[in-house]
Amino acid sequence: MSKRQVRIGMIGYRFMGKAHSHAYRDLPFYFDLDVEPVMQAIAGRDPEAVRQAAGKMGWKSYETDWRRLLERDDIDLIDIGTPNDTHAEMAIAAAEAGKHIICEKPLAMNAEQAGRMLEAANRAGIVHMICHNYRFVPAIRYAKHLIDSGRLGTIYHMRATYLQDWIMDPKFPLVWRLRKEVCGSGTHGDLMAHSIDLARYLVGELTEVTGMMDTFVKCRPIGEMSGGLNAQVVDDRYGEVDVDDAVAFLGRFANGALGVFEASRFGKGNRNGNRFEINGSKGSVRWDMENMNNLQLYLDDDEKGMQGFRTINCTEEAHPYAGVYWPAGHIIGYEHTFINIMHELMRGIAGNFSPEPNFADGYRNQLVLDAVERSALTKQWVTIPT
Amino acid sequence: MSKRQVRIGMIGYRFMGKAHSHAYRDLPFYFDLDVEPVMQAIAGRDPEAVRQAAGKMGWKSYETDWRRLLERDDIDLIDIGTPNDTHAEMAIAAAEAGKHIICEKPLAMNAEQAGRMLEAANRAGIVHMICHNYRFVPAIRYAKHLIDSGRLGTIYHMRATYLQDWIMDPKFPLVWRLRKEVCGSGTHGDLMAHSIDLARYLVGELTEVTGMMDTFVKCRPIGEMSGGLNAQVVDDRYGEVDVDDAVAFLGRFANGALGVFEASRFGKGNRNGNRFEINGSKGSVRWDMENMNNLQLYLDDDEKGMQGFRTINCTEEAHPYAGVYWPAGHIIGYEHTFINIMHELMRGIAGNFSPEPNFADGYRNQLVLDAVERSALTKQWVTIPT
Amino acid sequence: MSKRQVRIGMIGYRFMGKAHSHAYRDLPFYFDLDVEPVMQAIAGRDPEAVRQAAGKMGWKSYETDWRRLLERDDIDLIDIGTPNDTHAEMAIAAAEAGKHIICEKPLAMNAEQAGRMLEAANRAGIVHMICHNYRFVPAIRYAKHLIDSGRLGTIYHMRATYLQDWIMDPKFPLVWRLRKEVCGSGTHGDLMAHSIDLARYLVGELTEVTGMMDTFVKCRPIGEMSGGLNAQVVDDRYGEVDVDDAVAFLGRFANGALGVFEASRFGKGNRNGNRFEINGSKGSVRWDMENMNNLQLYLDDDEKGMQGFRTINCTEEAHPYAGVYWPAGHIIGYEHTFINIMHELMRGIAGNFSPEPNFADGYRNQLVLDAVERSALTKQWVTIPT
Amino acid sequence: MSKRQVRIGMIGYRFMGKAHSHAYRDLPFYFDLDVEPVMQAIAGRDPEAVRQAAGKMGWKSYETDWRRLLERDDIDLIDIGTPNDTHAEMAIAAAEAGKHIICEKPLAMNAEQAGRMLEAANRAGIVHMICHNYRFVPAIRYAKHLIDSGRLGTIYHMRATYLQDWIMDPKFPLVWRLRKEVCGSGTHGDLMAHSIDLARYLVGELTEVTGMMDTFVKCRPIGEMSGGLNAQVVDDRYGEVDVDDAVAFLGRFANGALGVFEASRFGKGNRNGNRFEINGSKGSVRWDMENMNNLQLYLDDDEKGMQGFRTINCTEEAHPYAGVYWPAGHIIGYEHTFINIMHELMRGIAGNFSPEPNFADGYRNQLVLDAVERSALTKQWVTIPT
């Protein structure tokens, strides 16, 4: 009668911490689960801040040292939402402690780290996932279904663009997302990693890439490390921006399709412009995060004269996850992508398997990220290891 | 071998004169016609202006008295593009002179005049049309085809809105389109007449209406009578605006559908916002003049999950008229609606019939206009005579 | 330090019950409140169903008789989400029991009932609201701010359309929303009530109306009373549909603006097509529920040549409520409108005032609903009492 | 009083021949010119076909050998609209004969040829242009004005995509546009050449590129050489497709901006999907051919909360060329881009200068095309000669 509990320990409580916390909180409200998620403990270094975050978001306890979460035997799952430079250490330690893991993207600072994380997770036999939440947009999941069932035919093209504009002001400070030692890369690991994940999910593996990267604003005032959109300048000195503001690459997929990818934080007017189009021999799809519930679908077998892109509001029972929310036309938002992914995670833990995207996906994603970065440096095409 | 000529005499040479002249000029370029349109003569009161217009637009001769066109035996077709108060006199005289006629909309100042025009045309046995050009947008004509072939099922609703904003400035002068003695009504005969024509064309006859009309700016500086968008104030006195700025009505169609109609020249931001949506038991269509090549189509028999409004770019061979222009995706514009209607007119003259919309349509349109106006005055539902 | 509790007792647990429950659950996560909402008890007639609903949605206890909620002294607020025929009895009893109240729309079966509810609430001095959730869409709230601060100038027009299509199949059963004795009216009280609320909120009071109503499918198989979109036929007999499938009306606002309103459940392809446009002397706004985060804004004082409707994604700090959710461009959904309204309700209870929309708004809304209905019956314009 | 004549001799009379002929025919109707274009003669190899084309499109005479046009002293301007392999020979001969020239794009088969054409034109001192008609879309020309006047600030990004889908059926025949000996390249010279021209026009010169090209359908049935969309298979044998179906490249602009370009004839559902977005430090623009009258504009200096992309219908007096056509909101189409370019050509001939884009632009465009092609072959970045 009473369900097996999955007691969660989360590290980090800012943007992603909020998104994950909310998802755990909402999960049983919407989904019928085989396990019961319990918001057991949250970890952060600032005692007062972490205490407040725990209270506000509904965590039962808190720790100021993340290692304590691994030691506690009332924790089953570790959720890692901290900056990228910490993922490998935390995930490997969590795996060794026998905890299940969900880790924010990109999985690590580079493929070598990501590979070690995957190995540790496999060795420990734990359930693991990487939080590429856009896979869990109903419209995208439905696009996947259309592609897999052959409705678009042979895929020839994918083009994806992910544009933001929040750091364009040269006086915006040097936050952690702009420091290589903390984040590994800039736009590349932050935004492009999402586009690569969608490419792998929807079209398949990339085999080779050629890319370019650039940094438009090369020096910035020193700012709060933890800062997001509203980060404050904290110092009158300037520091070097050693990560990319923008990145683009051309790629070939294993199935012969061509890929064109671009991500930038200098796309003025695009607040969160995550978009793609896929063209196949029998149809095409288009998607845009700013109206994320909609999928544009073109089908070649529509009658002559009646052909055109359809705007499908993916809020109907036929659409993945939509049935648990609201009647058709009553749209959902960004946060629901996290509820959906946490639902899969709980299914994985209940069934003892690692739902996709998991650390293997995170590792392969990192191989592409690394290849693009090396290509940008060497100005050569780079082959992705298989 | 050489084709029968249709020698045209046109009265009026401003906005509509330009649109019609251009259509005659382009007609043989695009369409294979059974007759040869000849731009024979143009009439206007100002000798210098009409001479210049003739030269610029390609007319062979000009007259300063429109009656001269009726007297000339080298004129087969009279094209009336003058203000509304002149239509009846000109058309009846032209019919009596045995000339074919195309007349701008609205057909007349009221249904009584329109009825006399229809009668005169019928008595004379001439070919006649009214220039409701929006029927000749390929997207709309294709919508008609879909409705007639039952693709939308039983029609339940039509809602049409026609918004402009060019007279909103209270200092915009009192041009002829704002004087009842010249135009009969304001927005009503100018814009709503188009929506009514589309309603009759696409859904069928209206049987009863209840309406309201209003004038937001009741006094304006005296301006050039002939003026359009750039009309100048010519006098420091003010005159009363005695026509409607806005009109709306509810109506019932003979087939049981409900109609909701609104037209205004106070729709800020809408330069030429002619739009409608029609809902049937099996599908719906939407159209908007600002992207006039597109038809939005929803079909209920699309598979579950793949339902949504399609954006059809009506530039393909399957679409009416589109085949004579450019390859798919290479759009046409406003002026092509006139080329298309003149093509029908030439077919009518070649085949000795009056293509729709003709004076009978103009008369029935005027019955609806009059009924709405009476309803607005009496605040009662008014039945449309059959 | 510990906050005053607001202990909630909710009656009804289906569509609206789910929406409200979720809102209470999420409220403290997003907003910093002066009171603490407690999901104390839920009431419903079916013991097993209400027990399960309580468990799933997070209510501490349940009752099978709503009157029990009024008797319990551990309940401060009654939330009424049952069919329309029960609102008056429940609300009046709740007010007399000294409970605060939030009631679903429409407030009652008619203005007389609504008036008595308002009176009872005022007499009891309790806090009361009506759940017109669309007022709490950030885009709409921002439109209100623009209008109030004069950015659109004098308002000339509002046109609103609310279209759904879930009952178009003639075999869809006769659920409670199609029975006059239970719901009072059909599309009118369900959808049009929302449009009227937005009209009153954004433009002001209506003074007179003329309307029409129609029922396209007049007999339906007997179905589950409680059913929504997936309701099942439960009987092989047919019953009469005695409410409207569609309604439209013309109205005049106290400030001189013209209103055109239409609602239908026969708008094929429109799942939840709640839309409006407002035109003023200096600008216009457009909104559409299917992309509810976006506001279209036209401003006349934009430079010549650069004028056009802007698509504002109302997810920025400048937009009402948006600051508590996610970074710009990370959209919210339908359910957030309820979180926002419950936030206002808690502010009201904390500050001992009844935030708008409250029972006075529900009553005035009902006056308009009643006037439209009488107008449709009498085919006369009907004046709205002030 | 009577104007100097510009007597035109046109070579080729299919798709581009039709577009150019129509433009010459309409030119004096819309524009006030300092010279008078005369449709003097048309040349084509098939006597009957060229005779009919001349009659239908309004040419005074015809020739079956294009060289005859160069010999005639009643020809001032040669218009070249034939397949790409003929441009160099014709243009050089025309220049040597002292004729002005407008030539279709791409200018030649490669940069070497294009360079010789430019040299010949310069040596002869004639007026020359290349027909990149998209520069003459009012929305694009207005975008240029905004960029040049600094409204978008420093340009960081241009991404352009040009997608068609007319050859996707593997049974579509091997027409001239698919044979390297005739067209030089496939999608690259046909579609990508347009995107490169817009890039050079709007952002500036590209300095280096890395590209990829692919051919998805490598063998096709032999078809009519002259065929377009409706080309017929004429032979049961198959031939090799030796040009690209799709091409993409990354590029760097001289001003530091990054460019991402893609063109394909395998973009299912995109009939003529010519699109771009440009992001600058102060604003962005977006354009799409399928709604070619609209420009999307984002301006950073819009007030907080009111920021968003505006849809500007570029049909107002403030927009280039729009003033000669129709009132605001009455859109123009594809063919008007040719009327506009011919207007510039006539201005050039009247003023004895070569308006942009001219052979120098065609040559520089070809340098980029060649560099992308070499890059695709060598898998290296290739520097564009300055």
Count of the domains of chain A: 2
CATH superfamily of the largest domain in chain A: Dihydrodipicolinate Reductase, domain 2
Tally of alpha and pi helices of chain A: 10
Count all strands of chain A and give the number.
17
Task: Walk me through this protein's architecture.
The structure is a homotetramer of 386-residue chains. Chain A is an alpha/beta fold. The first copy, chain A, folds into 2 domains: 4-133, 3-Layer(aba) Sandwich (Rossmann fold); 137-356 and 364-378, Dihydrodipicolinate Reductase, domain 2, CATH 3.30.360. In chain A, 33% of the residues lie in helices and 27% in strands. In chain A, the strands form 3 sheets. A 9-stranded mixed beta sheet of chain A has the order 16-15-14-13-7-12-11-8-17. In chain A, helix 4 runs parallel beside helix 5. The first copy, chain A, is globular. The model of chain A has no long low-confidence stretch (mean pLDDT 96). Chain B binds chain C through residues 152, 156-157, 159, 161, 163, 165, 168, 210-212, 214, 216, 246, 248-250, 252, 256, 258, 260, 262, 264, 266-270, 277, 279-284, 298, 300, 307-309, 379-381, and chain C through 152, 156-157, 159, 161, 163, 165, 168, 210-212, 214, 216, 246, 248-250, 252, 256, 258, 260, 262, 264, 266-270, 279-284, 298, 300, 307-309, 379-381. Chains A, B, C, D: Residues 6-129 form the Gfo/Idh/MocA-like oxidoreductase N-terminal domain. Chains A, B, C, D: This is Gfo/Idh/MocA family oxidoreductase. Chains A, B, C, D: It holds the Pfam family GFO_IDH_MocA. Chains A, B, C, D: InterPro entries: Gfo/Idh/MocA-like_OxRdtase_N, Gfo/Idh/MocA_oxidrdct_glycsds, GFO_IDH_MocA-like_dom, NAD(P)-bd_dom_sf.
